[in-house]
Write a structure and sequence with these properties.
- The chain is of the alpha+beta class and 388 residues long.
- A hairpin with a 2-residue loop joins strand 9 and strand 10.
- The relative contact order is 0.21.
- Strands 4-3-12-11-10-9 form a six-stranded mixed beta sheet, with helices on both faces. Strands 1-2-5-6 form a four-stranded mixed beta sheet, with helices on one face. Strands 7-8 form a two-stranded antiparallel sheet.
């Protein structure tokens, strides 16, 4: 895993609901690993790949899963199989829109090198690859992404801290008019008498500047300057920042059926809305949720009948509110972490996208804290009692 040194949203005083895990990252879900390959060359290449293994490199099993598309102008390959079968095998891969084909083929070649087991190979024939458009900062039609970049992301996937911002598949992304990219967060919570974790990873490339909310405040309207810039001689270059997309991956150790995970995936919408996302006409808000709990794992070939555990091991459907809350809160923080960690970037056509400026955010959070401080009553002020 790439060393993590970027600031995070909490470092700027931004408050969030819920209790984060040890890393405040999707890797707080035990066994889950993440790897990045960031591809940057010259003035025009700003792309990459992020790989996420639900159960690590060596796992044979798949995981129960569900997909929800809040607005579906985007792609997540393998989604039909997930909806029909209720699960998937192998990693989730995130990249730019025109890198989906390369990423998918490179992963299949990686599988071919990793194993000669025909049953295991067969479970991997429909990779899960999701995209957002990086073609404003990146020459997407130059097809710079190569198989070796995908292999690097796969081979370097690790547990522990997760690099955020301009990394992996998030390298060329723009979010709410500022530099976007990869972000992550987690929450710990109690459900059905047991402690559980939910972790989230986002590839954030969505939202309008004026809609950005931080801790419920209209930060996008309050922050001055920092709007995207093009050189004067490139003012007519084709740049479309009005719509974008976000991929949200939600992982939990709560034992759940695919139908329950579909309900969890929908709650990512709440987290996106808490930061001001609304699902633009041409945006792709596509959310994947899965469970790593042993009770629901999908096994390979003839092992299914004897190893699949009974539905009774799953949590009841009317007891999911703690997970719903935790998911929404983690999605909100993951998006803001992506914004805070990302660095200013100049890319294709000289387009300059600024990072979310940290000093004004700190100032805004300070004003928010003062506004919420309870007022001390005057020494001789009469007390007002509220009658029932």
């Amino acid at each position: 895993m790439t060393p993590v040194s970027q600031p995070r949203a909490r470092d700027l005083g931004i408050p969030f609901d819920g209790e984060p895990g040890a890393q405040n990252a999707i890797t707080d879900v035990a066994g889950l690993t993440v790897g990045h390959c960031t591809v940057t060359h010259g003035d025009t290449v700003r792309t990459g790949v992020t790989a996420l293994f639900p159960l690590g490199h060596e796992a044979r099993d798949g995981v129960p899963a569900a997909v929800f598309a809040f607005n579906g102008t985007g792609e997540m390959t393998g989604a039909h199989q997930i909806s029909e079968y209720g699960g998937f095998f192998g990693p989730v891969l995130l990249t730019g829109t025109l890198g989906v084909g390369t990423t998918s083929q490179a992963y299949l070649r990686w599988v071919a090198r990793q194993t000669t087991d025909d049953d295991l190979r067969f479970t991997r024939i429909l990779p899960v690859v999701a995209e957002t458009w990086d073609g404003n900062l990146h020459d997407a039609w130059g097809f710079a992404l190569q198989p070796e970049h995908v292999w690097q992301a796969l081979d370097t996937a690790r547990s522990g801290p997760v690099a955020e911002g301009n990394v992996g598949g998030g390298n060329g992304m723009i979010c709410h008019g500022f530099k976007g990219g990869v972000g992550t967060a987690s929450r710990r919570f109690e459900q059905c008498g047991h402690q559980h974790t939910v972790g989230v990873l986002v590839q954030a490339n969505h939202g309008l500047r004026d809609d950005l909310l931080l801790a419920g405040l209209p930060a996008g309207r309050w922050i001055q300057g920092g709007t995207p810039e093009l050189p004067a001689d490139r003012a007519a270059a084709p740049v479309a920042l009005a719509d974008g997309s976000i991929i949200v991956v939600v992982a939990t150790d709560v034992p759940l059926h695919a139908s329950q995970l579909a309900r969890v995936a929908k709650r990512a919408t709440v987290g996106v809305a808490r930061t001001g996302g609304f699902g633009g006409t041409l945006s792709g808000e596509i959310f994947l949720a899965f469970s790593t709990a042993p009770a629901g794992r999908v096994t390979v070939g003839e092992e299914v009948a004897k190893d699949q555990q009974a539905p009774g091991a799953m949590h009841p459907g009317d007891a999911l509110d703690p997970l719903f809350h935790a998911t929404a809160w983690a999605v909100e923080e993951a998006i803001v972490n992506a914004l805070v960690a990302a660095d200013t970037m100049t890319g294709l056509h000289g387009l300059l996208i600024h990072r979310l400026p940290h000093a004004p955010v700190r100032s805004l959070m300070g004003r928010r804290a003062r506004m919420l401080e309870p007022e001390e009553p005057a020494a001789n002020a009469p007390r007002t009692e509220i009658q029932p």
